[in-house]
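Side project, low priority. Logging it here so it doesn't get lost.
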Amino acid sequence: MAILASGSAVGYGVAFAATPLLTRIYSPEEFGALAVYMSVVGMLGNVVTLRYPLAIPLPEDDDSALSLLLLSLGIAFIISLILFIAQFFWGEEIVRAAGIEAIASYLWLVPVGLLGIGTYQSLNYWAVRTSDFGPISQTKIIQSVGMVIIQLTFGFFNPGAFGLIVGDVFGRVGGSGSLAVRAFARQRQSIHRMTFNDLIKSAIRYRRFPMISASSSLLNSAGLQIAPLLLASFYGVKVAGLFALSQRIIGIPMVLFGQAIGQVFYGEFAKKKYEGQVVMRGLYLGMAKKLAIYGAIPVLVLGLWGPDVFGLIFGNAWRDAGIYTQTLAAMFLIQFVVVPLSQTLTILEKQVVQFIWDALRLLLVIAALYGASFLKLSPLTAILLYGISMFLSYAMLFLLSLKVIETTGAQG
């Protein structure tokens, strides 16, 4: 786990360090186009393999796992090919219907990016199965370094959103080749024995992943990814770009730190699961308190001096991103506290509760931004309403998880 975390940390660090250069090469409008693209592939990328890669580590025998790997790669290719053909013939209609005019010229890169996501996801879970954590860690660094090099190179010689998006595509697929070589070199004979019926059997055996996990994952990612799409549609790509930088700067380090703490919490809470409600509740509230203390400092700094910090580090064109960060400070803090603790519902096998919450969060976000647009409110007010809706959503999740702990403990 430490190897994986270190690779992710280095990768995020590279992307974070390069941001002040990128913001002086690319405009907020170009970052807005990137944000729209990332939102689209971020949502669809969760279902491009129908979630079958999650099952790859589960079978006892390698042949069954290999059939799942080939099934996942095949599904990703077919779905991406269908989308590529669809955008070729009906690109204008898709752009208008989805409100993604910002990436009309780059729509063909959506299926390319999705194929990259599906390929990497599938090979990544095979590597997890075989405990090849070192190569996985290396791919994280390759992805970030490659993405930054491509974005900087295109920015110097051919400024425009195309360079940002191409870099993002590489940032999703980089390193897949080395993972594929390692996976298939060891399974060459098994691949030759594999039949189409083997893939069908695996698809049926693990059908709960596309039937349940895919819909839940889509709801979860939509709740996180839909805001830039709606902001770009209602207020223009510049607002979406400023919003995206705010998310990127405060989100990257907090996600890194939160993931590390979340992994620790997951392990500890899983062990305490059978020790009763009092123990579980104490661990849950104790971790929440620690997270609130850790997250308060960076949020307080950016909440007080956001515009000055953003203007100094990223250039004057990005001062408004600092204002957006100030506006979203409370949301960032509660998000940092609650997301690592949200695994409580998974450990206590309350996925239905999680599904309902995901749906409610998505509805609240859509209502907030649609309402702001309908009432012709300013972009800053729209972002404030978005922050309030997210704050309420995470507060609800915190209380729901606590209620589940108390109910489960009482039943136990």
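Brief comment: The CA atoms of residues 277 and 405 lie 6 Å apart.
Revisit when time allows.
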